[in-house]
Amino acid sequence: MRDAMVLAVAEGLVEFGEFQADHDGRIEIEDYEADGRELKVNTLDGEVLEVERD
Length: 54
Hints:
The protein is of the alpha+beta class. It contains 1 helix and 4 strands; from the N terminus they run αββββ. It is globular, with a radius of gyration of 10 Å.
């Protein structure tokens, strides 16, 4: 989980609101960037799989 948080911060996440971990090791972290845009980061094994900005 800590590695996923580090990756999310590197992508611009400044707040952590929602965490979801799947049985396959995928972790989704969702909350907001500094400018208020929603940011969702999906990781697996220390690698960013997807970054979604709304």
